[in-house]
């Protein structure tokens, strides 16, 4: 039998809403067992892609495979094997958090009681509060506990840390690391770059419904420039250079009387800025 | 008050459909009632008959109140003084809650509160909107009553303006029948009031005359007892009662922590006010003076025009506004007066159906209680109907046309159950459309991302709607049976009436299934289900009286309900159930194929 190595395989995905083209030939490949970062600015199409993956939206064109199946046609069966955390969690105002966690767990086909208790503790979540009494961060925690406590192969997390404080973000990162250690696949949509950098094996960057960059962080760095931060007698230097320009740059710095030098691969922040931080006219030209 | 003007403008803009719909809808109901009364009770003898029968029967006293003048105006004022006044209160309650607690609940108030607005401005703007609506309603009511009192020419022009155009040719008889029916039976009460509700809930002017195109006839025709002062007094009564309940809602919005409970509490107060005045009118009269609706009736508009009494609801509105302002200043944004109670840390819900039931349970219990009370009320006065109607052959004829029965009591009960089925359909539509609410709020998404199919999720809410219809009608039938059995001493009435009420369920299912079909196929057009309900109401209730062609009447599923008790069962329920199943299947098919709307 042919074994699926991709938990998610999307190719040429198109989704339009009336006149607007939300997804325009998007590509996404997530291997089994990896934590995959899904990056893009607001409105790039991250949530739309995830809704197609969940079978909530129907693709107009392109092929989409989720855990080896068709997310539209086999949604119910596939959903047994995944857990989803939306970016903006809305709860029923008169149900308690504990009730929602248990409901979602049962609807997915089971909940690990020990993990549930441990997660409530770690996220410091009071499950007896009613939905309307939770803050945004606490609503997010309800969905996170329900997802991490269920026994699934794939976690689809859509900007899951929005509203969490830094301490809770740490807890979240630890949870994702544990999931990876247990061999689960995670699709993590985010625009918090440090989070993706710390957690993800590979990254896909999308913009305006299209994939602009995809690969491991090492691969992406390979494609990009080296950041040079130096102090010279002539003043501070901060620039990015192609690897091939490095010898010339170092010579120039030596001549300038370098007193301090840091060279490092670009952070994801810098990768990201290269694609989205460009001035509008520059961005326009690249299209 | 900083920001008040802007917030008031925003509220008016948000209510640009809802507010005119309420005002014109209520105005249209007032117009139809007073027009038909002016036509029906031209003859002093017929008026005296009403006074001596309906004016002395405890059941009608409880529903409408006491009659204070035997002129046409006196009867109009009497007929509009109870339930129509309560609807004015309902309008301002919903308006105030919508612009206070509901905004806090959704976080919109926070967004606005962070801008340069006075802390009290949102509450003030809400009350200002309610005041505007109350005054507009007062003006519309005044105009409608004057137009009705303006003589035959005006009246028939108005009838032409309504969709009852064909009725106008056959003279006053059709309207006379409608009005007589409305006056003579409590079933008729539900009829006209449902009509008022339905038209208010939809576009207001569709069923009846367009309130905006009224032919204004200021002439106070002699003998009708309808004059400018009386019409103004009635309009002012509506406005004052509306204001009083705006004050009630302003307070309940401070006390509770959700718009649902704020509305619930305020409507509870409204219901209590109605019940207190009902007791007062039927029994110890001083009780009426404890109720804002009772005060409205004690103005005795179009009879004695006791203007000073208007000070009572206005004073209450002022006091409640002060109370609300004080409470508002003492609490945090978003918080109620009492801290929220914690829920269970563990959940027992395990299926979509259990979730749907949990979400809809409260509403269903409330509706069932209402149906039981209505059923008990209708059932326990059924036996009196023959006595009440006396010798009025017109009324007998109208009732028999509507109920299709010779036996008057059975005809009355059958007509009552038909009307209850229409109200049950309103319940079912809102229960089905809960699906749309879950979808657009984003709460459906996490559920559908689990191993729950769309069909199963949709059926969870839909099945509560379908079973709910049966439950409501069974409750009404059972209570009517108990009430009727208590009068006749015949226990067989209990199963007979319960079964008769239940045979009406399939017609209501058709509308529930239509709502489901719209939700599945045209989710943005789900409001059309309410339009269909208004149409069905107009066709079935007014059709036989207005001599509409049978093929047109047969469009409504309610036309195919059996006329039980007393009539034949027939194939109608089976046909309706089949149609409902087909529509539901179409809805589920559409839902499986469409995109889900995300928040």
Automatic annotation (TrEMBL), chain B:
Respond yes or no to whether keyword Chloroplast is given for this record. Answer: no
Instruction: Report the superkingdom from the record.
Output: Bacteria
Keywords annotated in UniProt: Membrane, Transmembrane, Transmembrane helix
Q: Where are the transmembrane segments?
A: 21-38, 76-96, 123-148, 228-253, 265-287, 307-327, 364-382, 411-433, 464-485, 497-520, 527-546, 574-591
Q: What is this protein called?
A: ABC transporter permease
Which organism is the protein's source? Solirubrobacter phytolaccae
